Amino acid sequence: QSVLTQPPSVSGAPGQRVTISCTGSSSNIGAGYDVNWYQQLPGTAPKLLIYGNSNRPSGVPDRFSGSKSGTSASLAITGLRAEDEADYYCQSYDSSLSESVFGGGTKLTVL
Amino acid sequence: QVQLVQSGAEVKKPGASVKVSCKASGYTYTTYDISWVRQAPGQGLEWMGWISASGRNTNYARKVQGRVTITTDTSTSAAYMELRSLTSDDTAVYYCARGGATSGYDYWGQGALVTVSS
Lengths: 111, 118
Hints:
The complex is a heterodimer.
Chain A: E1 9-12, E2 18-23, E3 36-40, E4 47-50, E5 64-69, E6 72-77, E7 86-94, E8 99-102, E9 106-110
Parallel strand pairs in A: 1-9
Antiparallel strand pairs in A: 2-6, 3-4, 3-7, 5-6, 7-8, 7-9
Chain B: E1 3-6, E2 10-12, E3 18-25, E4 34-39, E5 45-51, E6 58-60, E7 68-73, E8 78-83, E9 92-98, E10 112-116
């Protein structure tokens, strides 16, 4: 059971908008620790998609956006494309564990 | 360009130890922490631990505490993760990533598959 909870799967048609939620608690997201998001294509290492809740590294399309409120965070992907089909993970820090923690991951299927 | 290049795949017997290396290039090694993350087959990402840029500080996940040691050699810009008393549950791809416990991980190694099997 992951400290950060994500839906196991989401799906959407090309061109649509999807969101992936990441629910934490008062010892991680709710304590003010940043949420970061990663995209993992099959057979490859994770790639940083969003850092510091809502910032995109250079090279990440603005179709990807992140937000945070209270004990939860969300990743939104607009204008879905076939190449967005991947696993997505949220990550933060948990002060009660003194550990970095990941969500269980969400598989995005582009219909 | 920033690169983290890891050692190759390993096959170990239960009870053995494994040491995975991660050689960094393309940036000033002593200005960024290094973390280790593993991923069991078909499973999610699991943070294992972190070492500070200077090598003076480490912190490990409770799940592997006592069995894992992360070290760094600043003279060669390399980090190492040693895991002892291996069981089949330790079969996973092990990644090094640039960043500490409270930060995001902006660069990742290519991963090293460790298979534990009798």
